[in-house]
Amino acid sequence: MLKIGHRGARGYEPENTLISFQKALDMGVDGIELDVHLSADGLVVVIHDETVDRTTDGSGLVNEKTYEQLSHFRIEKNQNIPTLKEVLDLVDRKCFVNIELKGNGTAAPVVAMIQEYVQVQKWSYDDFIVSSFEWKMLSETVALDSNIPIAVLTETTIAAALDFAKKIKARAINPDFILLEIGTTEQLQREGFKVYPWTVNEIEDIKTIQNYGVDGIISDFPDRIQ
Ligand code: G3P
Ligand code: CA
Fold this sequence. Notes:
- Helices cover 33% and strands 19% of the residues.
- The chain is of the alpha/beta class.
- Strands 1, 2, 3, 4, 5, 6, 7, 8 and 9 form a nine-stranded mixed β-sheet that branches.
- Residues 6, 33, 35, 48, 100, 131, 153, 174, 198-199, 218 line the site of SN-glycerol-3-phosphate.
């Protein structure tokens, strides 16, 4: 059962920051999950929302700011918005990286970065998972490079996610854990997919979901996953 740190170790450190990812690594995670958008000048940056308002001291849309502008916004504990490259260099293959495509236009630059890390830095495709609720971006990812492991995110319907996962030959289906039952988990696995539900934080929920036999759990508190 894989232990996957949501936005790093969001229960302990500011989400999607280098100290959050380091905390998750210190907890011995198998993988980290993070969210990406594009800056106005085309850099892949790690931030959940489409604006900087909630998590930084700045305001405005991420994709209307250059990376130089974004880099000046402060996050708690003296952090700033990292680039995807900074996070990958921090991780240094110590765990896999689940990149969730949030912002429009992120598929192509993320594929290019994965290919660079595989070809130049000697990472493996299995060091990555690309996921998204925007399934069109997953189709685009597969069309650009079918070696990249894909996870289909869903917060509404497992049946539609299963159909789409078959179509694009995804590796995994990552549902909101509320949608899961033991029968559905087993069905998805019989169909050949890994199941990594999110965001499972309470100990009781973690136990229940573990009893379903899922392949991994995405949690703000990855140390709670035994
Ligand atoms: O990748 C799973 C989970 O992170 C999806 O929801 O809103 O936390 O990005 P959200
Ligand atoms: Ca996410």
